Amino acid sequence: MRAFVFPGQGAQTIGMGRDLAEAYAAAQAVFDEVDDALGEKLSTLIWDGEIETLTLTENAQPALMATSMAAMRALEAEGIAVTSGAYVAGHSLGEYSALCAAGALGLADTARLLRLRGRAMQEAVPVGQGAMAAVLGLDLDRVAEIASKAAEGQVCAAANDNDPAQVVISGDKEAVERAAVLAKEAGAKRALMLPVSAPFHCSLMSPAASAMAEALSHVDIETPVVPIVSNVRAQATDSTTMIRNLLVDQVTGAVRWRESVVWMVEQGVTDFWEVGAGKALSGMIRRIAKDAHVRAIGTAEDVRSAAAA
Questions:
Q1: DSSP 3-state percent helix, strand, coil across the chain (nearest 5)
Q2: 184 near 150, Cβ under 8 Å?
Q3: Cα separation of 127 and 287, whole Å?
Q4: Where are the beta strands (DSSP E) in the chain?
Q5: What are the residue ranges in the chain where pLDDT is below 50?
Q6: Catalytic residue among 197, 201, 230, 260
Q7: Of 43, 68, 92, 97, which one is the catalytic site residue?
């Protein structure tokens, strides 16, 4: 049983998806439609721009989705439809890619939603006031306990439960810095401050959640052809009402990626195909489910290899 999974922010690179567009007309059509939806040549930034500009949240989010959808359309051109999977799932913004791949959201709507989401998340907290840190070598319960202790009246919470030994914390900069020190004292292998421009997936993102609720109220959401395993619940749903609500909750809620993968394995998933830029999710999945078969599909060669297999 297969699941298609879609990466989140951090996987972006200049040039991603270019060879897909050159090899598959359906992939090129994705970038063209995203450019039209945003009223600008995002594809030019993706392929020939500066990484600092691409990494801006408002650019990275629609760009990564476009690359994932280009890879998905290339797979479809080779006869591999999303319906060959039992589930779709995505890490943070990747959840939008998953919903688009499963037909719940239109491509143009998804691009516009992610542009708005990126801007709203950036504007929710002034630059320099928030931070995120990756804690390596401690499990979720221990990191959550440390974050609570470090808060001292500020916001500090576990934001991403990525795999058994990687949890990301998010919140006010001073509190996150305190938590990083406490984590090292508690035996963490490393506690790394992340180069992000805002503290994602914590209560400081409440203004962005309100903005997304308003935007989503004007967007049509169809029943996905494959159920989506949501970040917030770590279980599958195909309810359009629930999907809409979960996308709002996701802005401030933790990404329960480890639990999501465990849940899919418990349902019988043995093969995970990471569709889009990078291989970050593939590494996480291998650490979560050691017996799973994992394949990263981000280039035309990857698509052809998957089709041949």
A1: 50, 15, 30
A2: no
A3: 33
A4: 2-6, 87-90, 130-136, 156-163, 166-172, 190-193, 228-229, 236-237, 271-275, 293-297
A5: none
A6: 201
A7: 92
The CA-to-CA distance between both ends of the chain, in Å, stands at: 15
- 3 by DSSP, 3-state: which? strand
**Cα dihedral 135, 10, 4, 217 sign:** positive
Which among 75, 66, 103 is positioned nearest to 221, based on CA atoms? 103
**Rounded CA separation 169/171 (Å):** 7
Residue 201 falls in the annotated catalytic set = yes
How far apart are the C-alpha atoms of 223 and 243, rounded to whole Å? 9
The pLDDT value given to residue 10: 87
Share of the chain above pLDDT 90, in %: 95
Catalytic status, residue 203 = no
CB-count burial class (<10 Å; 0-12, 13-18, 19+) for 217: exposed
The model's pTM is 0.95
